C-alpha cells in the first residue's frame, strides 16, 4: 500500500504548506459536510499535521493544529507567500458565495482561533468580494519577487488578480488581467483552474469549462495565446512544466484526456496525447515539482495513475480503499454498530470512492495527497512506484557527482535544483604537480631543441648534487666534437695549462743558470754526494765500450753501460743497434727505473701499447689520471673498451658511482644505468598502509638521463627489459596526470600487455591525434577477438521475440531448434554457404576494429562494382562499423546502396515456383515465428540484385513510440541515446511490454538506421514507384507554393522546414523506410490539403505524431508546419 496518512470524514479542498518548517502540515477547507441539517451552510478551515515522520507500524494519527469557522463552504484553497516565514505566509480560501478570505496561518497554528469565526480579526487578514459566483480556482505566485500576487477564478468565468499588502492596512488591490478593472475579463465559462508560469512571473494561464485555456501576459494586459483544447468539453485541470516555461499539460473531462502542449511549436495542435491511461475523462492532475518526468492524475474511471513522461505511459496506479464486503454487513440483522452509509445495501460503490483532486507536496518529495467523494483525504508515498519507469526519480539523484576517466580526466556534474544552470565539467586532476612541472620543463627545453650540449650544460650547472653535476658534464662531453680534449680538460688535465706550467719551470731554470747557480759537475764530490747520482764510468768500462763499438757489437756495449750505471748512454747506443735491441734496452731501463720514477710505468704502457694492463694495475683512487691516459693515448676503436675495463676495475673496488661515469665514456648504457637504477630503488617510498611506490621525481631524473644518453647512441639501440619497464611506469604516471602526448613518446621500447593497452588507449583518446608516432604507425588492437556465440542453455528464462512476437520458455525453444536442425539437414549446402558468409563477416568486423578510428574512406568511388556511382564506404569513428554515403546528395546508409527496383507485379504461380527453385538463403523466421534466433537473410530478385530482409520488412519496433519535443533526450531515454549515438546508456525498454520490464535475453540484433539528408533539390530527388509518384509531385508542389508565399523570417523558416520534411520523406520512402500504411496516411493529408480540408489534414498529422514520432520525427515536424502554413495561407 502507498497510503501513509488519512483523514476520515473530510469532504474538503486541500492546500499543502509551502514552508519547510511545516512540511507535513496541510490545510483543509470544507467542501461539503455529512450528517448535518438542511439549514447548515457553514464551513470550516482546519490545519492538520500528518505526522508522517513518526516511526509507527500503523498509520499515524493526524493532529489538529488549529481551525476557524466560515459562513460558507469552500470552492478552492491556496497557501502561499511568506518566502519561508510562517508569519508572512497567507491562506486564501475561495468561498461558494464569491468571497475570497485571507487568513494568517501563524494565528491558526498558535491555537488561539480554534473556535473563532471567519470574522475574527485575530486570524482573518482580509475578505474580498469581486466574483459573482463561487470561487473555483486560487493560486499564489510562486516567484520570490511576486509572492504577494494571488490569481482567482470563479464559476461566472471571471479572472481577477489580487495584490496583497501585508502591512498595518492589510489593503488588497484587485485588478483584471486584461486591464478592465471594472467588469473584469470573462473566459466564457466557469474557470476551472489558474496556474502561474514556472519560469516567468508575469505569465498566468486560466482554463475554462468551454474547452479553452488562455495564457495572459500581465505586463501587456492582454492574452498571449489561446489554446482550444477540446470543443464543448470542459478543461478540468492544467499545469505548467516545473522546469520548462513553454510546456503545459491540460486535462479534459471528455475523451481528450491529457494533452501535452509545446507553445514554441504550436498553439493550435498539441504536441502529443497521453493514451493508454484513463478510460473516461480526467478530473484532476498535477505535475511533480521535484521531477518533471512524473505526473499524477485521477479520472472518472476511478483510477489514480502515475505517468512517466519519457515513455508517455502510466507506470503505476495509486490504489483506492476496497469497499466493505457484503458478508460483514449481512451478519448484523438488527443494525447494531452500523455506519450511516451501511443502510440501503451498505457500502460505497466505486463511483463514491472516485477521487476528484490530486496534489503533490511542495516539500516532501514523492508524497501525493488525494481527495475522494467518500469524504477521505489521504497522503500517499509514490517513491517506490516512481522507480518502475526504469530509473530513479530526480529527487533521488545526487546534487553533484563525479566520475574518473583515463588520462587523469574527472567529469563532475552539478544537478543542484536550486541552481539556475547545471553544468557538466571536464577537468584534468593532477595528483603530482611537481612531476608535471619537471616533465613539461624537460619536454619544452629538451624536446623542442636539438642542442643537447646546451641542455646538458644547463643541467650540470643547476645540479645540487656533485654526482649529478658530473653525470651531466660527462653527458655534455659525449656530444662534443673534440670529446677527448674536453674530457681531459674536465678531469683537470688541461694541455694548455700544463704547457704553461712547463714553460714557467724552464724559465726558472734558465734564470738560475744565468745567475751562476749551476749544479756541480758530475765528477765532483758535491755531485757524488747527491742521492741517486749517476757514478762516473771507469777507465776500463770506457775501453770495453769502445772496443765493442769498434767491432759493431752494440749489444755488448749497451750491457757494459748498464753494468756501469750509465743508463742514458745505454739507450743512445741501443737506438743504433736495431729494433730488437732497442726494445730489450727499453724494457731493462723501465725495469730498473720504474720504482724510482713511477711515471715511467705509464711511459712503458704507452710505448708498448699495454693500456689494458695499465688499467688493471691502476690505482682506483686515481681513476681520473687513468681515464686521462686512456683519453690521450687510447686508439678510437679501443677507447670504449678501455673505459669499460676501467669501470669494471672501479666496480670491483666498490666505487659504483665513478664506474658509471667510465661506462658513460664507453657509451655503454646498459652498464651506466645500473647505478642509476640502484639509486632509484633507494628512493622507493613506503606509505602508511605498507604499500610501496616509486618516487616520481627520482623516476623523472632517471628518464631524463637515459633519454639524453640515447641521443648519443645509434637509433637501432634497444633498451633492456628493466629500463623499458621503468619507461612504461613513467608513461603511466604521465598519463595519469593528463600528459598523454608525452606519455606516448616513452612507450616505444615496451612490448608488454600493459604497454599495449596503454598505447591503444592513448591512441584512441582525445589526444591521440596529437601523437605523431602513433598516427604514423597505429598500434595493434591489444586484445584477441573471440566469438562467444549465443547461449542455448538459458534454463527457465523467457525470451521475447523482436517484432512483437509471442514469448515462450527456453525448453520449447530448444525443441523448436531441434526441429529446425532436422529441417536444415535437407539443405546442407545452403547452411554451409551461410556459415562461410558468417565467418567472413566476423573476419571483416575484426579487421574494421583494428583499423584506425579516424574517419577515412574504405573504398574509393567506383572502386567496387557493388557500390552505385557516387557512393563511397566510410568508417564510423565511434563504433568502427562501415556505412555508405553519397558524395553528391549527402545521403547515408548503414546498408550497401542498391538500385531501386520498380514495384513488383503479380506473377503466375508457375513463375513464382520457378524462382523458388533458385538457390537462395531463406530466413526461417517467417515459417517458424516462435524461433528465438532471427537470421538476417538475403533474397534474390529477378534482376540479380540483392535486397536485405530489413528492407523488405520496414516496420520497425515500437516500444515507446509517442514522444514529445523537450521531454525525450538522449541522456535520459535509452532508445534516443542509441539513435543519437550516446553509447553507454542502458536501455531498460528494449523488447519490453512496458517501461521498466526488460527482457532477459533477446534474439537477433537491431540495426541502426543511418540519417537521411534533408537537402531539398527538386532536380535530385530519387524516383518513386508509380504507386507513390503522386505523393512526390503533390507535396513538392505545395511546399514550393508555401516557400513562394512566405513573408517574414518566421514563415520562411517554417517553409524551409516543410521543404526539408518533404525531402526526407521522399528519400526515406524511396529507400523503403516508410510503411505502406504511413505512406497512405500521408496521401490522405495531401488529398485533404488539395481539397482545403485543413481540419482533416491536421487531425491525421496529429495521429501520426502521436503514434509514429519516434521513427519518423525527422519529417513529421516539418509536415506539421506544412499543414499549419497551408491552413493560414488558404492554399
Provide a short characterization of the protein structure.
With 1131 residues, the protein is α+β, with helices and mostly antiparallel strands.
Structure commentary:
The chain is α+β, with helices and mostly antiparallel strands. About 35% of the residues lie in helices and about 20% in strands. It contains 33 helices and 43 strands. The strands form 12 sheets. Strands 10, 11, 12, 13 and 14 form a 5-stranded antiparallel sheet that branches. Helix 5 runs antiparallel to helix 6 (about 465-480) and helix 10 packs antiparallel against helix 11. It starts with a strand and ends with a helix.
Helix proportion range:
25-40%
Strand content: 15-25%
Low-confidence blocks of residues: 113-119, 323-348, 521-532, 793-819, 821-865, 901-1007
Distance between the termini: 57 Å
Count the beta strands. 43
Keywords:
1131 residues; 43 strands; 5-stranded antiparallel beta sheet; alpha+beta; 4-stranded antiparallel beta sheet; elongated; single chain
Provide the fold topology.
Blueprint: E1 3-8, E2 11-16, E3 25-32, E4 43-49, E5 63-70, E6 74-81, E7 89-95, E8 99-103, H1 105-109, E9 124-129, E10 135-140, E11 149-154, E12 158-164, E13 172-175, E14 185-186, E15 191-196, E16 203-208, E17 212-217, E18 222-228, E19 235-240, E20 247-252, E21 258-262, E22 272-274, E23 282-287, E24 294-299, E25 304-308, E26 313-318, H2 326-330, E27 355-360, E28 367-372, E29 376-381, H3 383-386, E30 400-404, E31 409-414, E32 424-428, H4 433-447, H5 452-462, H6 466-478, H7 483-491, H8 495-514, H9 525-529, H10 539-550, H11 554-564, H12 567-574, H13 579-593, H14 599-607, H15 611-617, H16 623-633, H17 639-652, H18 656-665, H19 669-682, E33 685-686, E34 692-693, H20 696-711, H21 721-736, H22 740-745, H23 753-763, H24 772-776, E35 798-800, E36 808-809, H25 810-824, H26 828-850, E37 857-859, E38 871-875, E39 882-886, E40 892-893, H27 909-916, E41 938-940, E42 946-948, H28 949-952, H29 974-979, E43 1001-1002, H30 1029-1045, H31 1048-1070, H32 1076-1090, H33 1094-1129
Parallel strand pairs: 35-43
Antiparallel strand pairs: 1-29, 2-3, 3-4, 4-5, 6-7, 7-8, 8-9, 10-11, 11-12, 12-13, 12-14, 15-16, 16-17, 17-18, 19-20, 20-21, 21-22, 23-24, 24-25, 25-26, 27-28, 28-29, 30-31, 31-32, 33-34, 35-36, 37-38, 38-39, 39-40, 41-42
Helix pairs in contact: 4-20, 5-6, 6-7, 6-18, 7-16, 10-11, 11-12, 12-13, 15-17, 16-17, 17-18, 18-19, 19-20, 20-21, 30-31, 30-33, 31-33, 32-33
